[in-house]
Structure formats: structure tokens, C-alpha cells
Amino acid sequence: MKRLHSIAMIFAAAVVITQTSGCYRGSVHQSSNGKLPSLQETSRILADYQPWFGDREHINVGYSTMDPNVLRKQVLKAKEMGIYAFAVDWYGDRRPFLDRSYALLQQVSAENNFHICLMYDETQEDNGQATDDALQAFDKAYRRYIGPDAPGHEAYVTYNGRPVIFIFPKRGRTDWDRVRAAVDQWEHPPILIYKDEPPAQYAHNFDGYYAWVHPGRHWQPDGSDWGKEYLDRFYQKMQSRPGKVVVGGVWPGFNDSRASWTLNRHMSRRCGQTFEDTLKMFHQYDDPEHPMPFVMIATWNDYEEGTQIETGVSDCHNGERNAALQNQR
Predict the structure, then answer these.
(1) Nearest in space to 124 (alpha carbons), one of 275, 5, 247, 261
(2) Which residues are bridge partners to 116 per DSSP?
């Protein structure tokens, strides 16, 4: 099982994808020379992955996540960067295209000694179906992707022998007491990790928490708020959650102007500095005596919200994205 031994490795990844896109930052390059302190050996890098490109409901980024050749190139590239696994946005049967993409990506991951896990997106519909949707989705996840009879299950991310599932909340209308009771019947009950913190009445059902790209207080028109206050609050709050799995957060920036659901939110990449600063905060709060087992990059390829690292961590070269996408073809 591949371990991450140094913060410098992830900075080296930043160098690789920045240089291939024709953009360079001296400070990032210097970080790749092994001058920074080490991460704990148990820390693993995850990257959130969007499996919906090629679906007409989303923008055209030059490839389809239903193309095995594209997925294979992405997996191999991620491995070279020191990424341990993709955490894949997944809606169960509510989004068939995404489900098929996930199944294909798990197969490719298993074939290439890579890892993968689900990030279950809670329904945002106020139709009283949130709990039933979750129960059906988790049942399918176990049968098709996680359980001992699931094809490619050896690629699925585990922690202390238990599969890891991230939860991306929407309206918070799921009865997690019922879901927890159902998944506790699995051979190895999953570790459920919630974004920030769940509703208080359901907190006992979750095994951990993860940070997600967010400004400190408010989205600034000039994109200057890169999330320092938010990360300080998150990590400090997690210090009072002993026994919980804490997953750190790293991101390169944010810009949802290309998304159909845009709210005109912007967080500047600052030519790679936002990526560096969020990673340094992870190291600052990572206690050697109680290390965080994972750190998640948001994201590998969310071009609609401008958080992708697939094409680089910098935005200081106008042709960066187009050139990198051409190289994928």
C-alpha cells in the first residue's frame, strides 16, 4: 500500500502539472527539493473526482469520463503525483451516467493498483425521499463496489479494515439513524465522513469530518479570501473531537463562473500560492502524535467550479487549461 512520506512530494506534483501547462512559480519548485518537514507515514493524499464530463448536462472539457483511455491516463498521472486515491462524487441511481463512470473508474483503478472511494451526494429535493434514496444508494454501493463479491473491490479505500465513504450534504433531510443502522449490517461497516459537521442529532452516526473549499467568512469580489479563517476554525474544532477521523483540505482556488448554477463566487489561485497556503495549514495542524490519516485535494477535475489541479495549480498563464486538455487527447 503506497504511503506518502513527504510534503515535498505533493509540491513536486504541483511542479509537474504547473510546468506542463507552461507556468512556473519559483517557490513551488523550491518546495520540491525536500526542504519541508515530513508528513506522517500514515497520511495519504486523496483528490475529489468529478465523473460527469461527457454528459450533456455539464460543460465540454475535451474528454469523457466514460472513456477508459482517459481514465487510465488520469489514474497513472495521479499515481505519479503521489495521489493515493480518487474520492468520486456519486448519486447512486439518481445519476446513471455518473454511476457508470464510477464503475468504469473503479475497474481501471483496480487494474492499475490505484484506489478509489465514494463521495455520496445527498439529495437536495424536498420530496421526502432523501432517506430512501440514501438507503438504496448505500445498498447498491455495497453490492456493486464495496462488498467482498463486488468486482474491483480491492481498489476501494479502507481505513483500519473498514471502507471509507464521504458524505456531501445538501439539505440535510436524510435520517442518518436509519442509514447507519442499515450499513452497520455490512461485513465491515463503513467509516462515514461528513463535510464539516453533521446536524447535531445525527453526529453519533459519523466517524469523521473533512474540510472543503470555503472562504474564511465571505466570498470576496477580488477572490482574496483563500480560506485561512475557515481552515483555522475547522482544525481547531477538530482538536476537540477525539477519536474521530479528520481529513484535511487543500485546494488551488475556486471560480464557479462556468457552472450553470453559478453564484459568481471566486477564490484566486494567486499563481499557485493558494494551493501552497492550504497545504501548509494542513501541516501546521497535523499532530505527529495523532496524525490525520488523509488530506483531500478539492479537486482533481471540477472545471465548472475552477478547483481542478489536473491542468495545474496556477492561473498565471492564459493558455494553461487549453494546452493541458489538448495533451489529454
Answers:
(1) 261
(2) 86, 156
CB-based contacts of 256, cutoff 8 Å, min separation 6: 262, 263, 264, 265, 266, 304, 305, 306
303-326 pLDDT, tens digit per residue, is 999 999 998 888 786 444 444 444
User: Are the CB atoms for 245 and 191 separated by under 8 Å?
Assistant: yes
221 contacts: CB under 8 Å, gap ≥ 6: 266
Altogether, the residues listed in the chain come to a count of 329
pLDDT tens for 35-72 read 223 334 557 999 999 999 999 889 999 999 999 999 99
Query: Shortest CA distance to 12 belongs to which of 45, 40, 49?
Result: 45
According to DSSP, the residues that pair with 249 across neighbouring strands are: 296
Nearest to 52 by CA among 109, 95, 112: 95
